[in-house]
User: Fold this.
Amino acid sequence: MSRPRPDRRRILLLTEGRTTPLSAKTATGVIRYGRGRVVGLIDSTQAGQTAGALLDVGGDIPVCASLSQAPEADTLIIGIAPAGGTLTSGMRGVIREAIGRGMHVESGMHYFLSDDEQFVRLAKLSGATLTDLRKNTERDVARFEAFDPGCLRLHTVGNDSCVGKMLVSVELARGLAMAGCDTKFVATGQTGMLIEGDGCAVDSVVSDFVGGATERLVLAAQDHKAMVVEGQGSLANPRYSGVTMGLLHGCLPDGLVLCYEAGRTEIVGLEPMLLPPLEQVAQAFLSAANLHHPCRFIGVAINGRLLSDDACLREKESVQKRLNLPAWDVVREGIDGLVGEALKLRRELGKI
Assistant:
C-alpha cells in the first residue's frame, strides 16, 4: 500500500480500553486538528458508541470492536499514550492485523514498534510502514547562542498533565496567524507531531539533552514572527517535572500561558496527591523562567469541560481575581483574548 498524502489519509484510531478525554489525548488531538479523515476508533470495550459521546469531539465517528468491523482505512494511529507506554495483548492483535493489511501504523508510545521483531517481520512481508514518533537521536546540549530577539517566543505551561496545553498552543498559533502574525506551532509531543508534521517528543530525550532538543526546535522556527512552544507535564507534577523544566529553559520564553482544568484537585495518576494552589504554581514557573530571560504570563487558559456555563463564568471571575491575569475558556470563548494579549506583549517588547 503506497503512502497517501497526509491530507488524504483515512485514519483509524486505536484506543482499546481507554477511550476517555484524559487517556485518549492523542486520539482527541488527531480528531480535532489532524491531517486526513478519521473514519473510526477501535475499542472492543466501547463498540457501538461514538467518538462524540465518549470524547466530546468527533461527532458520530463510530467506535468499532475490531479492525475487521471498522470502515476501510489506510492508516492506524495508536490514539493513547499511557504511563510506561506498553502494549496490551488486545492492542498487539489489532496492530498485527493492520500490519498484515499493509497499513501505515503510527505510534507515540514509549514502546517502539520498529524494535518489535514480530512487527518488523510482518511489515517486511506486507509493505506496511511503522512510525515511532517518540524515537529520536537527540544528543546535543543547549548552547543559547543564536536566539533571534525579533521572534516572539510563547510557551504553554500547566498546573498538571492533561490540562489542554497542546490545544491552547495550536489555537494560539493559528489565532496569531489569522491576526496577521506569522506564527509557528512548535510540537514537543507525539500528538502535536501528528498534527504539525514535525517536532520532537521531548519526553523521550535523554535528560541532559532536553534543553538542546528544545533549542533546536526554537532555532528551526524563528524565521517566523512568533512561535508557540507546546508545554509538557508540569513543575507541580513530580512524575514529569524534569521534562517541564527542560522545555522551559530550552526555549527561554518571552511569555507564558497558564493552563489548568477547573475542578481538579489531585495530580492525575498520583491520586490522592494534592495539586498546589494555582498562585504557587504560577510563581514557580515565573521564578524558573526568569532565571535567565525576562518572562511574564500573558493570561490563563481554563479547561472548563467539567463545568456548566454558569459555573465556568464564576470560575473565570475567581481565577482572574486570584492571579490578576485575564482568563478564558478557549473551547467556549475562542482564542481571541489570548491572541490580543500575545500581540500586546509583542508590541511592548518591540518585536515588530
Q: What stands out?
A: Residues 6-132 form a domain with the Rossmann fold fold (CATH 3.40.50.720). The mean pLDDT is 95. DSSP finds twelve helices and twelve strands in the chain.
